[in-house]
Design brief:
- The protein has 929 residues and is of the alpha/beta class.
- The chain has a six-stranded mixed sheet with strand order 11-9-10-7-6-15, with helices on both faces.
- Helix 25 runs antiparallel to helix 26.
- It starts with 20 loop residues before the first helix and ends with a helix.
Amino acid sequence: MTDYKNTLNLPKTEFPMKANLAEQEPKRLQKWEENNVYDKIQHSRNGCPEYILHDGPPYANGSIHIGTALNKILKDFIIKIKTGQGFKSPYVPGWDCHGLPIELKVDQELGEKKKDMTVAQIRKVCRNYAGKYIDIQRTDFKRLGIFGVWDKPYITMDFEYEATTLAELYKCYKKGEVYKGSKPVYWCHSCVTALAEAEVEYADHTSTSVFVKFPLDDNAKNKLGISGEISAVIWTTTPWTLPANVAIAVNRDYEYSIIKINETENSNLSTGEYIIAAKEMLENLAETFKIAGYDEVKTVKGSELEYLNARHPFYERNSVIVLADYVTLDAGTGLVHTAPGHGQDDYETGLRYNLDILSPVDDNGILRNVGIFDGMHINKANKEIVAYMQKHGSLLAQNDISHSYPHCWRCKKPVIFRATPQWFISMSENSLRERTLDAVKNKVKWIPSWGQNRIQSMIENRPDWCISRQRLWGVPIAFITCHDCGEIIFNDEIEKTTVEAFEKEGADAWFEHDEAFFLNGITKCHKCGSTHLKKEKDILDVWFDSGTSHAAVCEKRPELGKRANMYLEGSDQHRGWFQSSILESMATRGVPPFDEVLTHGFVVDGNGRKMSKSLGNTIAPMDIINKYGTEILRLWVAAEDYTEDVRISEDIIKRITESYRKIRNTARYILGNLNDFDPDKDMLEYDKLMELDKNILGRWQLVKAKIYESYNTYQFHGFYHGFLNFCINDLSSFYLDIIKDRAYSSKNHSYERRSAQTAMFNLIKETAVVINPVLSFTADEIWEYLPKWNDKKEFVFEEFFPKVEDYKIDYKWGIITNVRKEVNKALEIARADKVIGHPLDAEVIISVSEDMAKHLTVDEGLERMFIVSKAVVVTGNIENAYVSEDGQIKVLVQPCSAPKCARCWTHSDTVGKDETHIEVCQRCAEALK
């Protein structure tokens, strides 16, 4: 028998079967860089409307982690999608360079040397440290296939950026929104600095809770009609704040009981003694205080206790009883220890009642000027204060409780509330809070929608924004104040001189010049006449730094020049960058800096656990890239629902790798069938295509539309599942399986083959364009191996997304597809029973209803759809047939009696009809001529 293999149109392509992504991707990155792909993309969109995704700057401290990779890849998806949609979408990456993490690292490196260095010298070391990690991270981000102006990023320590940050601070000040005051702020005594809301994380913490007696004075006893000893009992989880106590808060509407002790085992209670506590809490408190018997002698409303005085348990001063709505009955006694210097609610109560604001804790957490506890760290003082109260009779009970407590985001240690002189942006001045909330609700689209409620509740409840930090590495709060009266010395000339100095020398100018340089001849305070004028030493909160990026970058970069369409970061940025940006923009411009805000979850391991070095479950993105390639990481990002926490593990990556293999093999097979196809000469019009080819292009339109919907709604897992299913089910298992015979066996330039090639060319060409936002490396590789045509762009990224054509899918294809599934089942059974070998050895008789039968016709023959040699459709009953589960389809499989073609393996009565090629069928004989 003649070997006809070399006469078949078998697939031929140099597109590699094995991707070798880890090895090949760097070469493609080099090619993109050498050919200025990013610039070519931007040039191709000249004159198009702009879409600006503004990059939230990652911190220039350490290598990138898997969460950073997720974030950058999501941004790249959107920018490339917008480019495909016809927008000019430049990407300016950025880095956040100031702040405590870098300063602490530098402190560790410098050690004792720091003591002998000037502020400017220390800041220079910080600048160099940040610059080193910018270069490291930039290399890693480019390895992810992210397009952008990597050679000209925005950097918050650049002189121009620092000058803009200062100018924005001055704008807020001139609007009356910046002030200096002493009020409680989050304070980290480990890092020795104030913290903003965004720099605080909540974690479980064990605290010592105490119940303490505050004896009422004689006037209070008389008002309540009590002649014996009576105490208000408070509860607190911070005994170290008791030296700052000046009041006891009650709720005006609660009922408070005065009880007389009849029997007790508590050494600090006596028979006949009275205590006051919330009526609703009495039963539990009696057990806690070991009170075996008591009489409830009187009940009063909280409002009746207002302005009564109690004596401090260990100082010779009074604590006044005040009213506060925040007093609840969730825990404690219904009477709340109040220290205005150590809590926001307490502080506001202190202002209402004109109480002293005591804050006897220094920067390092040491108690000062508090008598017997003076010089103790608060952690030690906790135990000493409890012991003192036990010894002197004021402690009724103590226990340890575990509760959610604020911790420093950097050192992870518990923080305290501490009243210190700080700089603030007022949330009430110019109705900043109300205007921002209106913008959140009505002027910004939040994706997912729950993001609106999240940031809304944060802004509704946040205190004034503390913008000062007691550190060195950052943009200084460049104000000069009078040391004697606190007046701020500021005018237009001082502003101009200072901003210009920052533009020329950076923020270091503030530390390298004296006050006279900035004051322009002013020598004394215009308010009190003092000549003691001093520069502020505090620096700005880094969230103010990054929050001004809309001004420093979006408004000033020539390729941007407008407010952003989108900000995209992790969900923790509702507390951080999203909030600082919208507050700063609303304060200075009255409009939000973005139209849309998209947030993603955190990356967790395959079991849903947070990643940590202690658990040993961290996965570095470069480890995945070096083993599997960036393309696998990008496909993982697309496959996951990023609106929730995103899981990653070795098993997950392996599944993604298998999905990628199926996509790649599909592309390779199609490219192999286009090896002799010239689109400019061989392409057929859609109306002239064979029915199966029209059908697959129609199916592609539906899939394409769903992909575009996924892109428009940023639901990229819709792309992943939709496209993967199309490759597996519509192409590999159906269309490509069927047309294999036509593509291989028909004459190479025949209508039948050109029709299939036209369909495959359109599919793979459009596929490359449509998938390029996600599978950028593979799309560009496919593009390289596509046949040339007249207007082919150099790179796939320059193309616009192909439109969704209105190709109608004939109703019959649904019936043909369903019947094909049942025929395949029948064929498998026949093969297992040795009735046939290969499906082409079979002829099938299919029994269906008359209505179904009229739809089972195809221009190239129904047998081609089922990959058998002969197919007959009947409407009557057939015996010994396979029956579908619903009983609607019966299939009889039997060997085909016609001779087998030695070339295409189809059994046909035309085999031997051609005298020149007697071993093949008529179709193959024509192909051989």
